[in-house]
Amino acid sequence: ASVAASAVGTAPRRALVRRPARNLAEGQLTHLARSPIDLARADEQWRGYVAALAAAGWDTIEVEPAPHLPDSVFIEDTVILFGDQAVVCSPGAPSRRGETAAAEAAVRALGLTVHRIELPGTLDGGDVLKVGRTVYVGRSLRTNGDGVRQLRAILEPRGHTVVPVPITKVLHLKSAVTALPDGTVIGYRPLIDDPSVFPRFLPVPEPEGTAVVVLDAGTVLMSSAAPRSAALFAGLGYQVVTVDISEFEKLEGCVTCLSVRVR
Ligand code: CIR
């Protein structure tokens, strides 16, 4: 019924989400110092994020909550979708390995074909950025060479090109770069080892401005912590929806981490 829905025809647009764990405050930290988490505020911010997806025409599917897995809200890391193919990830952090079973059950319930990255291969969904048929994969602390090799073996026969990208300054590839609807890769230059791997790269002025969720061809969702980046995208003709996700940013999460879009 919305303008956004008409932009992509009549196909239902769905996104997986997972509500925050009760021990969210114990989530993994790699580059940031621990600061107190307000759980009530995190719950409220998560509801705001889900409401923003819904307002843009996305039906959200809630994966079974995991109240004792602190990082389970960051569902993006557990499964990657390529059309009707799902790749269940192999989390690089041992504390996160219990998160994948429910994500796998959710994508099976959607009728998708399921592939799996297996140990000793590790791969976090936050390291995977799709731009057209190109799949950039962060070679990070979480994703190892075996994980990249397994993903390549799944995707290359299906017409995707897997391009590994060394990442040393942030947790995941998508903590440093994401892409606008037209495929331009955006990122905060100091967080990126080598932006020349991306054919079209646009630097943004704030670290929280690196992450956008494409809601439709003309609309992006991003953190309210990056107003100058929001102004940059608006100036390029995009509609920008912002959400406050400060409690998740304290745990090195960003807007992309909180959902998996089914497309
Ligand atoms: C972690 O360290 O695994 C979580 N505290 C944050 C995960 C963020 N996910 C993402 O960037 N895709």
From TrEMBL:
Q: Which GO terms describe its molecular function?
A: amino acid binding; dimethylargininase activity
Annotated keywords:
Hydrolase
The superkingdom listed in its UniProt entry is Bacteria
UniProt record, GO biological process: arginine metabolic process; citrulline metabolic process; positive regulation of nitric oxide biosynthetic process
Which residue spans traverse the membrane? none
Q: Which InterPro entries match?
A: DDAH-like
Indicate the family of this protein: Belongs to the DDAH family.
Q: Which NCBIfam families match?
A: DiMthArgaseDdahStm
Q: Which PANTHER family match?
A: DIMETHYLARGININASE (PTHR12737:SF9), DIMETHYLARGININE DIMETHYLAMINOHYDROLASE (PTHR12737)
Q: What is this protein called?
A: N(G),N(G)-dimethylarginine dimethylaminohydrolase
